[in-house]
Design brief:
about 260 residues; 6 helices; 15 strands; eight-stranded mixed sheet; alpha+beta; seven-stranded mixed sheet; 2,3-Dihydroxybiphenyl 1,2-Dioxygenase, domain 1
Length: about 260
């Protein structure tokens, strides 16, 4: 399968890992599929949960680590608490993507090269908004195929009774058009605009760029979730003690908007 560009994973950052993981599992009826020891070298620990063929990861500073000792902790200091940290996509040809971003003057902040997987994290100052990463898993050409970050057995942990997939990301900015054009340039996708606002679309998701909704600066402000059982999700959120407004849930500093 050639020529694809898809949202595969969202990374959230939290001061304390397990309470956020518990809230996600209780709300969306999902289960942790993998915890990656490789993130320990960044002073973090994590948990990954499948939302259908897409994933939500939560990272947090390791116990005993001061906030300013990790990039994730410093990011939380900047935005004033827990929040959305990274948008991770997959593509058929990572080497071609690396050549493309070099040609347009976007720096690569981190290269991930594991057996069967390559990833490219871009410098946030060159792209803007939420940190962007694009990778390729040699077993992941199909959307339900392999995904290195989720472990080899992730499909055993999929529960879709309540949730189907992540289908959108909102990023707030004082200049949404500038940010949309930056993302469109990096992703080689057009910026679209209609009554719903500015967006850039990949194969399975839409990236929305919106004016600020709070005082947290330029950061991820919301996720759009395809729901299979909206009522059960909302009931789970209320039972977990989360703020619920209509079909929107506030969790880990992000608004989760439910779509049928």
């Amino acid at each position: 399968m050639a020529g694809y560009l898809r949202l595969r994973q969202i990374c959230l950052v939290a001061a304390d890992l397990e309470p956020v993981v518990d809230q996600l599992c209780a709300t969306f009826g999902v289960t942790v599929c993998h915890r990656d020891p490789n993130v320990n070298k960044y002073g973090l620990h994590n948990a990954l949960m499948p939302f259908g063929p897409t994933f939500v990861e939560v990272v947090a500073p390791l116990p005993g680590k001061a906030a300013d000792e990790t990039a994730g902790g410093r990011y939380m200091q900047r935005i004033g608490g827990n929040g959305g940290y990274m948008v991770i996509m997959d593509q058929d040809d990572v080497n071609a993507f690396r050549e493309h971003v070099a040609a347009i003057g976007v720096r690569i902040a981190n290269k991930l090269d594991y057996p069967g997987y390559q990833g490219t994290q871009l410098h946030p100052k060159d792209v803007g908004g939420t940190i962007m990463s694009i990778g390729h898993d040699e077993h992941g050409d199909e959307l339900w195929g392999g995904w290195h970050a989720a472990g080899k057995e992730w499909k055993k942990y999929v529960h879709t009774e309540r949730v189907a997939a992540i289908i959108g990301v909102e990023t707030q900015s004082d200049d949404p058009r500038r940010l949309a054009e930056s993302w469109g340039r990096v992703l080689r996708r057009p910026v679209l605009e209609d009554a719903a606002g500015l967006r850039v679309e990949v194969d399975n998701a839409k990236y929305h760029f919106v004016p600020p909704v709070d005082g947290r600066g330029e950061t991820m402000s919301a996720l759009h979730i395809r729901a299979n059982d909206k009522a059960a999700i909302l009931a789970g959120a209320k039972q977990a003690g989360l703020e619920v407004t209509g079909s929107t849930i506030r969790l880990c500093g992000v608004n989760w908007r439910l779509a049928d």
